[in-house]
Amino acid sequence: MPTIYILDSIKILIFYYDHSPPHFHAIYNEFEELITIQDLETLRGEIPSRQKRKLMIWAHTNKEFLIVKWNDFNPENKL
Question: Residue 79 has what pLDDT?
């Protein structure tokens, strides 16, 4: 499970050969949230609201990067 980016101690990961829908994992301390790439909605979990705000700004700005990484790591389940 490669960390593709670290944003103010928030690790952003995409797993190899992961399940649908296409998503990324955000880990901050003991918290984890799975967020869909297409609409940036929470799939499961929760990180603190202050970190979530920073994460959402980053994700909106870097959506193409997330799509490219998802497609690289999940060639049979491309976006």
Answer: 84
In the chain (79 residues long), the average pLDDT of successive 10-residue segments reads 94 95 98 98 98 98 98 91
Tokens of 57: 């700004």
Q: Which domain, by its residues, includes 33? A: 3-73
Q: What are phi and psi of 10, to 5 degrees?
A: -95, 115
Question: Does residue 64 lie within any of the structural domains?
Answer: yes
- Cβ–Cβ < 8 Å for 25, 15: yes
Number of domains in the chain: 1
DSSP 3-state of 35? strand
Residue 74 is classified by DSSP as -
